[in-house]
Amino acid sequence: MTTDLTVRAAFFRALSHPARLTLLRLTWNEALGGEKLAALTGLASATVSHHLAQLSEAGLMTARQDGHQRLHRANSTALNATLVELIGGEVPLPAADDPYRVRVLRAFIKDGKLTRIPAQRKKRDVVLQELAGLFEPGRLYPEQQVNAVLGEWHADFFTLRRELVGLDLLARKDGVYWRVEGTPEAASP
Asked: Where in the numbering of this chain does the HTH arsR-type domain appear (predicted)?
């Protein structure tokens, strides 16, 4: 019960800042990049990134990679719950991110770039799971495109690509890659 209340409190805390409400309004109907949001709000890019992280951690914002930019959109499913449902506990809320995961990502990802590949396996796995989210499930990617996407995050895209395949987050056949969903045995191009 305490965890449920903690998650619900994080939900309301994320909504408690005017800048975050503005970001949710701007991204309600369309996904926008951080630079565009900074321009629309008049806030510094770092401030926008901070608020987007708060919204994402509470499950109120989603993000997807589109070429060279990360697009953010309000999670309307989570936001459509009524106050009665939220307080009464009738609506399951998106789980707030694991604090360890959040700390690792903040330590190794700055301004949309991976500062370095973590040496510790547990931290590296957290970063790799985040990078796997750059690839859409069900879509095929030629190796050159995988390299380009990962190269935007870190110069050593070879290691990142190899590690993603090694963790069964991406699968590969004949130079074509795809994001693995569910069990690796069930994945196929």
From this structure: 1-94
